[in-house]
Automatic annotation (TrEMBL):
<dbReference type="Pfam" id="PF02769">
    <property type="entry name" value="AIRS_C"/>
</dbReference>
<keyword id="KW-0547">Nucleotide-binding</keyword>
<dbReference type="InterPro" id="IPR004733">
    <property type="entry name" value="PurM_cligase"/>
</dbReference>
<feature type="domain" description="PurM-like N-terminal">
    <location>
        <begin position="54"/>
        <end position="159"/>
    </location>
</feature>
<keyword id="KW-0658">Purine biosynthesis</keyword>
<protein>
    <recommendedName>
        <fullName>Phosphoribosylformylglycinamidine cyclo-ligase</fullName>
        <ecNumber>6.3.3.1</ecNumber>
    </recommendedName>
</protein>
<keyword id="KW-0963">Cytoplasm</keyword>
<dbReference type="InterPro" id="IPR036676">
    <property type="entry name" value="PurM-like_C_sf"/>
</dbReference>
<keyword id="KW-0436">Ligase</keyword>
<keyword id="KW-0067">ATP-binding</keyword>
<comment type="similarity">
    <text>Belongs to the AIR synthase family.</text>
</comment>
<dbReference type="InterPro" id="IPR016188">
    <property type="entry name" value="PurM-like_N"/>
</dbReference>
<dbReference type="GO" id="GO:0004641">
    <property type="term" value="F:phosphoribosylformylglycinamidine cyclo-ligase activity"/>
</dbReference>
<dbReference type="Pfam" id="PF00586">
    <property type="entry name" value="AIRS"/>
</dbReference>
<dbReference type="InterPro" id="IPR010918">
    <property type="entry name" value="PurM-like_C_dom"/>
</dbReference>
<dbReference type="InterPro" id="IPR036921">
    <property type="entry name" value="PurM-like_N_sf"/>
</dbReference>
<comment type="pathway">
    <text>Purine metabolism; IMP biosynthesis via de novo pathway; 5-amino-1-(5-phospho-D-ribosyl)imidazole from N(2)-formyl-N(1)-(5-phospho-D-ribosyl)glycinamide: step 2/2.</text>
</comment>
Length: 330
């Protein structure tokens, strides 16, 4: 019997099934700027209507949150996570997402699982007026075990050059406003899984995995609602490293983000992890978003308007003089 690609562990037919399952839904994310269709070697996107456009790109994955999804056999939220982690990053510069591409790797492809992951991306793209214009599925026996998957995404957005938000206009007295997270988002899951090894246990009346798999919040609509109304000095996406690592990325020399942690609304699941795992409060704030998925920095005269525009936003601090870049009083 001769060797075949299938006998080596790669089933091309399952790949074709995956494409068939997602093709129609992916096409629904396209607009008139998309010049090609699924199956091309490259993805084409036409840009128009801008005076001095700057492309802003970002790439990310969902880390070991995938393990929770795979063990719980819940896959759709992972696609949302993948898109959100990329789109929320470029949003920090005021960019609107134009198009998204995905990369899915596995040991043995299951078209049902792969399609469910991608359809989650489709839903997120639609919610953000973004086109899913390409991707790659790699079946890699020997590199991944059967049942293992990894996923990454690539998002490209656009912003007028004179409207780029980079933190350079942040000044003393500016207010720091928090936009709540939907949970852990897609960071810190190696510690989450260590403290919560049983995803089926009950937490607040439902299986724990339902709380852990709540997808990363998409901030596009909220942030652009604010940008259209007021001048925003800085935006930070609170991902790995928490407030400690992400806020200083937009703070200039001689300035400090002074934050009162007592004002932060910490989700109950994070308090439970802190208690059960015996995790120090400083470690919690240096690993998780602690309920703050994104922050915006605005002139104090605009703070009330931002709070009015965003029902669930709230103030957590202000910009002061200092050399530390962040002072988080916990």
């Amino acid at each position: 019997m001769s060797n075949t690609y299938k006998s080596a562990g790669v089933d091309k037919e399952e790949g074709y099934k995956t494409v068939d399952k997602i093709k129609k839904a992916v096409g629904e994310t396209h607009n008139s700027n998309v010049l090609n269709h699924l199956g091309s070697f490259g993805a084409f996107y036409e840009i128009g209507g801008y005076k001095n456009p700057v492309l802003v790109s970002g790439t990310d994955g969902v880390g070991t949150k995938l393990k929770v999804a795979l063990d719980s056999k819940r896959y759709d939220s992972i696609g949302v996570d993948c898109f959100a982690m990329c789109a929320n990053d470029i949003l920090c510069h005021g960019a609107k997402p134009l198009f998204f591409l995905d990369y899915l790797a596995c040991g043995k492809l299951d078209s049902e699982i792969a399609a469910e992951i991608v359809l989650g991306m489709v839903a997120a793209c639609k919610d953000n007026n973004c086109a899913l214009i390409g991707g790659e599925t790699a079946e890699m026996p020997g590199m991944y075990q059967p049942g293992d998957y990894d996923v990454a995404g690539f998002c490209v957005g656009i912003v007028e050059k004179d409207q780029i938000i980079d933190g350079s206009k942040i000044k003393t007295g500016d207010k720091i406003i928090a936009l709540p997270s939907s949970g852990f988002h897609s960071n810190g899951f190696s510690l989450v899984r260590k403290v919560f090894p049983d995803f089926e246990e009950e937490f607040e009346g439902k299986p724990l995995f339902e709380t852990l798999l709540v997808p990363t919040r998409l901030y596009y609509k909220d942030v652009h609602k604010v940008i259209e109304e007021v001048k925003v000095s800085g935006i930070a996406h609170i991902t790995g490293g928490g407030l400690y690592e992400n806020i200083p990325r937009i703070i200039g020399d001689g300035l400090c983000a002074s934050i009162d942690a007592s004002k932060i609304k910490i989700p109950s699941i994070m308090l439970e992890l802190e208690k059960r795992g015996g995790v120090a409060r400083e470690e919690m704030f240096g690993t998780f978003n602690m309920g703050v998925g994104m922050i915006v920095v605005v002139d104090p005269q605009h703070a009330e308007k931002v709070l009015h525009l965003l029902d669930d936003a709230y103030e957590i601090g202000e910009i002061t003089e200092g050399s530390e870049k962040i002072n988080l009083a916990i």
